[in-house]
Specification:
The protein is built from 26 helices and seven strands. With about 750 residues, it is an alpha/beta fold. The chain folds into two domains: about 475 residues, Amino acid/polyamine transporter I, CATH 1.20.1740; about 150 residues, no CATH class. The protein has a five-stranded mixed sheet, with helices on one face. It is elongated. It starts with 14 loop residues before the first helix and ends in a 7-residue tail after the last helix.
Length: about 750
Amino acid sequence: MSLEVENPGGAGESPNRLSLKRHDSLFGDAEKVSGGKYHGSEGNWARTLHLAFQSVGIIYGDIGTSPLYTYSSTFPNGIKQNDDLLGVLSLIIYTLIIIPMLKYVFIVLYANDNGDGGTFALYSLISRYAKIRMIPNQQAEDAMVSNYSIEAPSSQLRRAQWFKSKLESSKAAKIVLFTLTILGTSMVMGDGTLTPAISVLSAVSGIREKAPSLNQTAVVWISVAILLMLFSVQSLGTDKVGYTFAPVISVWFLLIAGIGMYNLVVHDIGVLRAFNPWYIVQYFKRNGKDGWVSLGGVILCVTGTEGMFADLGHFNIRAVQISFNGILFPSVALSYIGQAAYLRKFPENVGDCFYKSIPGPLFWPTFIVAILAAIIASQAMLSGAFAILSKALSLGCFPRVQVIHTSTKYEGQVYIPEVNFMMGLASIIVTIAFRTTTSIGNAYGICVVTTFSVTTHLMTIVMLLIWKKHIIFVLLFYVVFGSIELIYLSSILSKFIQGGYLPFCFAMVLMTLMATWHYVHVKRYWYELDHIVPTNQMTTLLEKNDVRRIPGVGLLYTELVQGIPPVFPRLIKKIPSVHSIFLFMSIKHLPIPHVVPAERFLFRQVGPREHRMFRCVARYGYSDSLEEPKEFAGFLVDRLKMFIQEEIAFAQNHAENEDETSSITDVPDAQTRPRRSTNSVVHSEEAIETRVSSNSGRITLHANQTAEEEKQLIDREVERGVVYLMGEANVSAGPKSSILKKVVVNYIYTFLRKNLTEGHKA
C-alpha cells in the first residue's frame, strides 16, 4: 500500500525516488492481518456446532413462530374440502424446501460480504467489483485493505467484462441498483414493524382457549402492553443474545415437533401423502382463483428467511446449514404436518388450529413458551433492522441519527432511539387498527416476498459479475426463483385493499427519506469536488491571508478524500489562524463490513513539511463502529507519528542513494584511470566505502533526531488540546430548479437535517 506526498510545487519526482519501493506506516501491520478470518468464516466442528446452537436463538425466531398463524391466514373463510389440506400442506412443505433451503441455505449464503449478509451487503459486494456508487471516492489503496478480498477484474470471461462496463457506464443501471437496495431495506424495516404485531398477537390469542370470556379487544390490548414492554427495553441491548435465546427457541422447537408428531399419529397419518407434489396441481384445479389467492397465506410459512442471510455475520455458513436442516426444518415441518392431521378431523377449528391441537397437559407450557418465542422473534427482527439502518447510514443513505452500541462483545448489536420509537408506534397502531393476524398477514406477506425478489435480482448480478457462472446456471436461478416469487407476489397483491397497501405506504415513506438524503448527499459531494482547492496553492493561501499558527492539533472534517475542501479558504479568511498540527480529516466507509485497526488511517503530507499539515482518511467498514473522541484521537496521533517517522526514513534512504551514486561517480572507471596495483585499487574502494558509510551514518543520525523532535512536538501539541472543526453547509435548490427538486431539497432534506438528533454533523 503505497503513499504519495502531495507535491506543493507540482513538479515530478526524481528517477531515484520513483525506483524505490515505498510503503506507508500501516504496511507492516497490514501484512500481519492479511487473510484473517471473521466470526462468519470456517472453523472446526466443535466451534461450528456451538455456533449452530447459538444461531437457533437468533435467526429462527420469526420463521419458527410462523405455524402460529399460517393456516388461519391461508383459510380465512374456512376449509371447503378436506383434500385442500393436502394441497396446502404440500405447498408449505415445498415452499420451505425451495426458498429457505435451496435458495438461501445452499446458494445465497455463499454471496456474503466477508461474513455479512443482507441487501446492503450484496450492494457493497457488487460495488467492489464495479464502480456503481454515485460518489467517486474510490482510492487505489482501498483495494489493498486485507479484508477487501477482490479478485482480478473479470479478465477471464468476456461476458463478465461486458456486464461490468455496462453497469459502470449506465447511470440508469446505478439508479436501479440503488433503488432495489433501498426497496429491500424498506421492506425489511416493514418486516421489523409487522413481526412484533403478528407474532405477539397470534401468541396472545391462545389465551382465549382457557379464558373464552375474553374478547378480541382484550387480546389486542394485552398484545399492546407486551409490545410497549418490548420496545421500551430495546435500549438495554441484547448482549449474550445467543446464549439467552437459544434454549428458549430450542424448547419451542421440541414442543411444536412433539405436538406435531402426536397429532400425526393420533388423528391422520395419511397426510404424509402431501409429500407428493401432485396434490398441489389438484388443489389449484379444484379451487382456481381461490387457490391462487390463498398463496398469500402460504408464503407466511417462510417469514424471517431473510434473517438467515442478514444475521450471518455472527455465524458461519456451515453452522446455519446444520441448524436449518437439522433443527428448524424438521421441527417446523412436523408442526405443519400435525396441524394438517388435526384439521382433517376438525376442519372447523382452522381459525385457531395451533392452540386447539395442543394436548391438554401441554397447553400452558406451550402458551408461555409461545409468548417468549414471539418476543424473541420480534427482538431478532428489530436488532436486524437497527443493524441494517446503521449500514445504510454509513453508506450515506440515511440521515445521521444517533446509533448506540449496546454490546461490547457483539458489535452488530445497535440501538437507534428515533427509529425504535417510530417502529414501536407503527407496530402498536397496526395491532390496534387491524386487530387480527389475518389482516396483518396480508401486509406481512408483501414485505417478505418483495425482499425475496430484491435478493434474487442482486444475486443474479453477483453470479454474472463476481462468481462468473455459466449463463445457463444464472438463467436457471433467475427464472426458477424469480417466477415462484412473482407468483406469490401476484397473489398477495390481490389483497392490496385488505391490508396489502400498508407496506407499500411504509416503503414509500422510507424510500423517499433515504433517496432524498442520498440525492442531496451526492449533490453536495460533487459541488465540493468541483470547488476543490488544489494542494499546490496551500503556501500561497496561507501567505495571502497572513495566517498565524496557534498551539494545539486541529482536525477539519470533510467528505472529500483528496485536495483542500472549499470550506478551508473561507475558514482562514474569517479566522486567519491554523493550529500547529493541522489535518484535513475524512471519515470514509468502504464497501466491506470491517477494516482492521492497523489499516484504519491513510496519511498524505499537504504542502512543505514545515507546514505540518496532513491529509488523513480514516477508513471504516459499514459494520464498524466509530471510536469515542478520546480513543480516536489517541489512535490518530500514534499513526501520525509512525507516518512521520516513515516519511523521514524514506527521505533518509533517498539521500543515502544519492550520496552513494555521487561517490561512485567521482571515481574514474577502469578504462580512464591510470593503472595501479591491485592493492591500490582495493585501498581506493575501501576509501569510497568509508566515505559513503560516514555520510550514511551522519544522515541516519540526523534523521533519527529529526523524527524524535517531530514526535515530541506532536505530543506537546496534543497536550495543548485537540480541536474538532466541522463545517456546516446550507444546501438549497437553485432558483431555476423544478418544483419537485425545491420541495425535496428545501423542505424534506432541511427538515430531516434540522430535526434528527445528529443530522447537523458531518
